[in-house]
Amino acid sequence: MAESVYLGGVADNRVVEVVKVESKWIDPTDKVCEVNGGEVKNGVCYAPWKEAKEICRVSEARLPNVEELKKVVSNCGGKIFKLSDNNWEEVGNKNQNNNNYQKCYNSKGFINHDYWSSSSDTNNINNACIVDLEHGCTDYHSKSYSKYVRCVRTVQ
Q1: pTM > 0.90: yes or no
Q2: Burial (CB count within 10 angstroms: exposed 0-12, middle 13-18, buried 19+), residue 42
Q3: Which of 20, 25, 81, 99 is deepest in the core (most CB within 10 A)?
Q4: Eight-state DSSP code of residue 35
């Protein structure tokens, strides 16, 4: 991910320090995943939403928000869509059949499955947003389901 945000400026004629903030994708260790209610599936941590949040916390990171996961799709050349969109099948198939897109998100450490975001459904607190990287779609799933977990750590 390695995005930079610069914070700083001038306040009351005093210079405020500029701080560079970056975010990095973190893979929880197998042990952290398993000890905190997840399992390792396809070499990646797989857990229900509540446990995924704890796994990221213990990994000194956080669960990514939906925008951070959608950025993986768009930065790799995929088209983002909602499963409820009328043309979801057409767009999903284009992403799935786009070898460059598939290779790109794989090179960033993701596999072709659903990943949890920290973003809850505003209409149903029992659901959270997932991003299906293989097809590029977002949807809401029950927090009790298990999905794949990657975490984000902010570093300065």
Answers
A1: no
A2: exposed
A3: 81
A4: H
In a domain, 59, yes or no: yes
Within a domain: residue 16? no
Tens-place pLDDT, residues 76-113: 999 988 877 777 788 888 989 999 999 999 999 999 99
- Look at the alpha carbons of 26, 31, 32, 38 in this order and tell me if their dihedral is positive or negative: positive
- Please return the burial class of 36, using the count of CB atoms within 10 Å of its CB with bins 0-12, 13-18 and 19+: buried
**What is residue 56's DSSP assignment?**
H
Q: Which domain holds residue 109?
A: 27-150
Q: What is the pLDDT of residue 7?
A: 47
Residue showing tokens 């768009």: 74
Number of residues written out for the chain: 156
Count of domains observed in the chain: 1
Please report how many Cα atoms fall inside a 13 Å half-sphere around the Cα of residue 15, on the Cβ side: 3
Taken in order 80, 105, 20, 52, the sign of the CA dihedral is positive
CATH, residue 85: 3.10.100
Residue 63 lies in a domain: yes
